[in-house]
Amino acid sequence: MFKPLLSLQRVGKEFPARGTGKGLSYKAVNEVSLDICPGETVGLVGESGCGKSTLGYLVLNLLDLTSGEILFEGQNFANLNKDQQRALKSQIQIVFQDPQSSLNPRFKIEQIVEEPLRLNGWRDKQKRKERVRQLLDKVGLGEEYLARFPHELSGGQRQRVAIARAISLNPKLIVLDEPTSALDVSVQAQILNLLKKLQRDLNLAFLFISHNLAVVRHLSNKVAVMYFGRIIELADTNELFNNPLHPYTKVLLQSIPNINPEKPLLVEVEGEIPTLHKSPLGCSFHSRCSIANDLCREAGPELQFIKEGHWVSCNAMSRGRKE
Ligand SMILES: Nc1ncnc2c1ncn2[C@@H]1O[C@H](COP(=O)(O)OP(=O)(O)O)[C@@H](O)[C@H]1O
Ligand SMILES: [Mg+2]
């Protein structure tokens, strides 16, 4: 039976919109529905500011939802008691883009990796020590790193430490928020391979946030394309790359360079970009869309089922289907 590990149901997050007058808010995440199955990688792509990290923080329960529901193994975090919430939180971890700022610079590597164990019931010091060594080994770092500080490590080594910490409590899901964007290309590949290996060994599910479409393609089972707080297209990876339907996805895919993989992969889409102050009526992409018509300026389309493994939110697609 199909049983998602994580299920987002019409999830929304609003932030107060400063400078627009009292009471106005800004939908950083808007009506997002998405499932992640055990052991699966779901890629989340979209331009900077479209709400990817906010969605990641919602999944981690680091932010409160404004609307909708998040279920982890069928359970709603909000309905659990404190102990259950802590247990659930340990099942979902995050690796940030920049290990420089996500690792405490005053802690040695041993303390950094040990901390989640200490805070989650690992009382026996010797067992913790053994576990930390085992975790470092899993991410390809030897014992000589235990006594070092983050600034004594390279970017790639620091990211390995962040990954060791993230897997320390045997989580089922890891949110990877641009985990290789700050690294050199050669190091990026090593870290991605490490993540893939750990995923196989530990049956981890990943929510893989990235603006690098080539990397997302390499790692993901399915890909969600986000625009202005909404998922505008969701498809199995091959389907998305071979048969993109949303005009925005098509522009994104055209921007994948063949020669220079370290370049940021998103090109500028032409047209007016929606802002806090000018959130458009209708489809949020219409001001930049080459095939928008009157309907698109009035009615925001819902994510619609096109075929098995492919959903898209575009008036043109739903019109096409009816005709
Ligand atoms: N804590 C916050 N308070 C107010 N606005 C926020 C906050 N966090 C994010 N935002 C806004 O929400 C939008 C989405 O941000 P973010 O999720 O970081 O996007 P992405 O990760 O895709 O670049 C941005 O416009 C950002 O300025
Ligand atoms: Mg972000």
Structure commentary:
It contains 12 helices and 12 strands. The longest helix is centred in the middle third of the chain and has 18 residues, at 185-202. An 8-stranded mixed β-sheet has the order 6-7-8-3-9-10-12-11, with helices on both faces. Helix 5 crosses helix 6 and helix 6 (155-167) runs parallel beside helix 7. With 323 residues, it is α/β, with parallel strands linked by helices. The relative contact order is 0.13. The chain has helices at 52-59, 82-90, 99-102, 109-119, 125-138, 155-167, 185-202, 213-219, 237-242, 247-254, 294-298, 315-322, and strands at residues 6-16, 25-36, 41-45, 67-72, 75-76, 92-95, 173-177, 205-209, 222-227, 230-236, 304-307, 310-312. The model is unreliable at 258-268 (pLDDT under 50). It has a domain at 6-91 and 171-257: Rossmann fold (3-Layer(aba) Sandwich). Bound molecules: adenosine-5'-diphosphate and magnesium ion. Residues 52-53, 177 line the site of magnesium ion (MG). Residues 15, 28, 46, 48-54 line the site of adenosine-5'-diphosphate.
